[in-house]
Recover the amino acids of this structure.
């Protein structure tokens, strides 16, 4: 079997423009795969397309119609493989985006070395994703996978007023189990441990007709949060609850 004969023998079959269209790829992409095949770079060729090239070179097709029929089947295999690869890409991109969101929320609290190390790691991951996106004809600069991301189960922190950390769209929320009127008197305090002691560095209150607070700035560099409210002439607090994983 002489791979060098591929180009000549392909001309004896359907036009290359027909082959490319039937396979759902561009002509330059088809030519590139043919070059990979002749050069013996099999790892760069779609395995189903390589099988087609092998059969062309070994004169295993009886006529052009048989080649066209085989191309239809190859297209089905290639489409199925591509769908699986796109799904894998979505999952990888989602993991990357979640990691980047966590970095964006904690960047200010990180040391210079930690920040640079994480920035370089994210840059490397994104570079790899960009290469995969190119292979899958995905515009990564305008891409967001519509996935139902599995979040941890929401569990109430028990107490006089129950609350629970949860996730909205890329932003953490603190749900408050109190009626709307009472929520107006409740403040969520974000707490970080400094030298072994709790330090309140930010307060957030629910908006009108809302029973939660949204932490717009992403996951904070906090130990946790607590609720604060007035009860008569007294000020009450819950314990400090962690945000969870």
């Amino acid at each position: 079997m002489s791979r060098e004969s591929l180009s000549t023998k392909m001309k004896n079959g359907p036009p290359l423009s027909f082959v490319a269209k039937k396979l759902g790829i561009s002509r330059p992409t088809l030519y590139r795969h043919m070059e990979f095949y002749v050069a013996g770079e099999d790892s760069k060729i779609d395995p189903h397309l390589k099988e087609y090239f092998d059969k062309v070179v070994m004169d295993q097709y009886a006529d052009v119609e048989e080649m066209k029929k085989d191309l239809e089947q190859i297209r089905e295999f290639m489409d199925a493989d591509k769908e699986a690869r796109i799904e894998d890409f979505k999952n990888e991109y989602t993991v990357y985006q979640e990691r980047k969101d966590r970095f964006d929320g904690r960047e200010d609290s990180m040391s210079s070395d930690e920040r640079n190390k994480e920035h370089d790691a994210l840059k490397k991951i994104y570079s790899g994703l960009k290469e995969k996106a190119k292979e899958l004809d995905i515009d990564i600069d305008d891409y967001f996978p519509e996935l139902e991301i599995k979040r941890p189960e929401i569990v109430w922190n028990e107490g006089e007023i129950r609350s629970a950390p949860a996730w909205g769209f890329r932003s953490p929320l603190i749900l408050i189990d109190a009626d709307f009127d009472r929520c107006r008197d409740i403040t969520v305090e974000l707490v970080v441990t400094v030298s072994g002691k709790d330090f309140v560095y930010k307060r957030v209150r629910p908006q009108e007709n809302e029973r939660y607070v949204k932490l717009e700035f992403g996951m904070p560099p906090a130990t946790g949060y607590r609720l604060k409210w007035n009860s008569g002439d007294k000020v009450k607090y819950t314990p400090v609850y962690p945000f969870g994983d």
